[in-house]
User: What shape does this take?
Amino acid sequence: MARLSRTQGLVLRIQDYAETDRIAVLLTPDRGRLDLLAKGARRLERTSGAALDLLNLVRVIFYLRRGLALLREVELLRTFPRIREELERLEEALVGLQWARSLAVKGEADPRPFKLTLQFLEGLERGWPPRLARLAYCLRLLAVAGHGPHLAGCVACGQAGELFWAPDRGGLLCGRCGGQGEPLADKVVATLRGLASLPPAALPRLQVDEETQAEVAELLSRFLEAQLARSEPGWYSNAP
Assistant: This one.
């Protein structure tokens, strides 16, 4: 018999299902990633359809069962209007939600990813620089998921100078240990380290040029791809 449960969560993704239903993917503090089936959510008269929208913080009551959990009730707790109204903030928020969905583990009672993601959205809402906020968030999310890149010198020998990016090896790598391509500029390495270690409140004061931000974003994207490729079955799922 299905068990009735409750939690709160951030809506990471919504997907239409059947004729009137909707699947919502939530990030929760006590169940990790939670995939919910909301029966009839696409009908205009159903309040669940409006509450289960991207970026929303909701409280849900659901029947826990194998596969998709079945939604019984949903309460909207918070929205983020400034993010929705400013395109750059919305774009960075959506990228962040994709990372959360990729790294969240179904059924895992670890509140850290949820708290990080909520903090990220609250920062964007308050005016944090959008791309820097997202890059710092992604680095921290990788760390709490156990996949943070090694940034304190070469991952193999600890050397501090002339470092290369090696996603398949776990972070920075020197030439003697197999680093290939162009070595990373010092400012790129410093930016990676700063974003990974500085308190989030310091982000508005951090000065990083657009070119460096773009390079760091590309490095992290490659790193995530490498981690997903190496992941064990069950750690990552692309559906729903």
